[in-house]
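Hi C.,

You asked whether I'd gotten around to modeling the 82-residue construct. I have! Everything is below, sequence then structure, no commentary in between.
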Amino acid sequence: MAIFTIARIYDEHESVEEYRVLVDSLWPRGVSKSAAALDENALLPGILNRLTSHARVTLLYGAKDPRINHAVILRDYLAEHA
C-alpha cells in the first residue's frame, strides 16, 4: 500500500525515491519545472489509480496554509479509498 505525504512545493525535497505530484491546477509562481522535479505536473482523475502503485507518493501544493489546501483533502481521500 502506498504512503501518501504532503509537502509545499516551495520546500526542498529530501527523497529521490518519492513519486512527486503537483495537486494544484495552477503552476506555483517562482518555481521552475526543473526545480520542482515532478513525476506528474497535474492531477487528473485518470492518474489516481497510478498513484497507488508507488510505494511513497508526495502530494505537492502551493498554498501558504499547510492545513487548508487540496493536498490535505486528496491525501485523506486516498487513505480512505486506496
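If it helps when you're writing up: Helices lie at 33-36, 48-51, 70-81.

Thanks,
B.
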